[in-house]
Amino acid sequence: MTRALTHGVAGYNRGCRCRECCAAYSRYRKDLRARHAERGLDPADPRHGTVNGYTNLGCRCRPCTVVASAVNAANKRARALKLRAS
Ligand SMILES: [Zn+2]
Ligand SMILES: [Zn+2]
Question: Which residues are placed with Cβ below 5 angstroms of ligand 2, an ion?
Fold first, then answer.
């Protein structure tokens, strides 16, 4: 068995989806998110109060959480409506 490919995040980025690569990648993503959450957003950052700020940048300030939960509620409502319509 030849293993020319380096498994792990590098392997995942190259398209390998073996268990090792997937595990490494999900660890890496979790790490990234934890780092974002630690750092937080600059108080002057214009992305506060956006879903992007909450979801991708991990900001948990009040404007960000309020917008994110409003969007979540709207999504849930839309899903419920769709279920009822079908
Ligand atoms: Zn792999
Ligand atoms: Zn924020």
Answer: 48, 53, 59, 61, 64
For 1-51, write each residue's pLDDT tens digit: 555 669 999 999 999 999 999 999 999 999 888 776 666 778 888 999 999
Q: The tokens 């979790």 sit on which residue?
A: 30
pTM over 0.70: no
Q: What is the C-alpha to C-alpha distance for residues 71 and 85, in angstroms, rounded to an integer?
A: 21
Give me ligand 1 centre to Cα 18, in Å. Answer: 4
Tens of pLDDT along 59-82?
Answer: 899 999 999 999 999 999 999 999
Residue 39 in tokens? 């750092």
Which residues lie near ion ligand 1 (Cβ < 5 Å)? Answer: 7, 11, 16, 18, 21
Give distance in angstroms: CA of 30 to centre of ligand 1.
19
Contact between 17 and 9 (Cβ < 8 Å): no
